[in-house]
Amino acid sequence: MTHTRFWLALCCGWAVQWAHADVSVRPAQAVQPTLHLSSDSDGLDVQKAGFGWLYRFEHAQAWQGLSVVDQRFKQGLQHRSGQEWAWVMQELDPATANGHQLKLGVNTGLGKDLWVFDGAWSFALGPQTRWEWFASQDWVDSIAAIDANTHHTLVGAALDQRLNDRLTAVLSAHHTRYSDKGRRDQVRGKLIWDVWPAQGVTLQGWLKAQEGNAVSRSYFNPETLQEYQGVLGVRQRWQGWTLAARYGLGQQQVNGSRWEPTHHSEIQITSPVRARQHWQLRWNGQKNWDITGPNYTYQAINAQWVLALD
């Protein structure tokens, strides 16, 4: 409750300051509704509906604001709900995607309050090299983990290296620490070949290796996991609009067991960045291992709409 009162007071203070600012120098404003819906083969349905007030808005990738998200979890007859109150900001270059973004807030109503954050900072090390740092903290998205007050804290980094005009290598690694003393270390590698650059078609090879410790069965964290996938990617642009899609097939092995098939797919549509209205719609689905075995399926849809007020 203390955290909630703090964020309510902070929001009121910002609103009063904005209302009394000189209209001639007052920055542009925008509103930002968001929606996340997901479901999986374990019967878990997650709904997160949010609303943001962007009190400083330049374009769809450069803004600052305040947001509140209503979170609802359902699995069989079990229901849990809570709210997230946060200060949010983003400052990205539309041409390169370099820049920084940050969410800092508190998650309330799910047993106890939790300070949450989600941030990333990316920059060019040279004309062919890009580096990124990222970190986050939040509840583990399962009813069993929420009831056990289990949250995770993640830190990681990624390096993109363009090898030639058509070949790019990506290496990333992150460490996750769970509040129940669990941990996870993961390394990913990607090799991306621009097969037909003019058509936006790529062929990609993905590798993933992971080590963890299974302290609890309230979330999936095997001792070892290996995975490889071949991925077909397509990206098309038209008058500022972007359509991107990927489909991957591969194999996954967990705790030394036999290799099992895995696949993932995703589609994303994004409107022009500098328009008065901007929206982004993304769907993704996957089949892989989880606690119940190798036939776990998951799908999610994320939508975001930004509407400038001035």
**What is the makeup of the main sheet?**
16 strands, antiparallel, barrel
Provide the CATH superfamily: monomeric porin ompg
Question: CATH fold name, please?
Answer: Porin
User: Which residues form runs of ≥5 with pLDDT under 50?
Assistant: 20-24
Give the strand order of the largest sheet, numbering strands 1, 2, ... along the chain: 1-2-3-4-5-6-7-8-9-10-11-12-13-14-15-16
Summarize this structure as a short list of keywords or feature phrases.
single chain, 310 residues, mainly beta, Porin, 16-stranded antiparallel β-barrel, 2 helices
Topology:
Layout: H1 2-19, E1 30-40, E2 44-59, E3 62-75, E4 78-92, E5 99-108, E6 114-126, E7 129-139, H2 143-147, E8 151-162, E9 167-178, E10 183-196, E11 201-212, E12 224-238, E13 241-254, E14 260-270, E15 277-290, E16 293-308
Antiparallel strand pairs: 1-2, 1-16, 2-3, 3-4, 4-5, 5-6, 6-7, 7-8, 8-9, 9-10, 10-11, 11-12, 12-13, 13-14, 14-15, 15-16
